[in-house]
Specification:
By secondary structure, the protein is mostly helical. The protein is 69% helix and 5% strand. The chain has four helices and two strands, in the order αααββα.
Amino acid sequence: MDFYKLKSLIAVAELNSITAASNAMNLSQSAVSQQLKEMENELEIKLLDRSRRPVTVTAAGAELVGVARSIISLWDDFQDRYQKKEF
């Protein structure tokens, strides 16, 4: 799992669109779709319901979005504290 995949999932959940999320992330639509499919395969769960428009996040996907937001927030806080310090 990497931060870019988590950020893509958050963007899709917030924007209800893989296309809009790809634009927001400055990635191609296929790149975002591939990231999401890789996460689903890795976790062996369905994160998005792609059968209707707009796409919707499944219950498991919504739970992962919450976890992803926490992870990204903690990482950003850590970077803010230590990125500016010298070795």
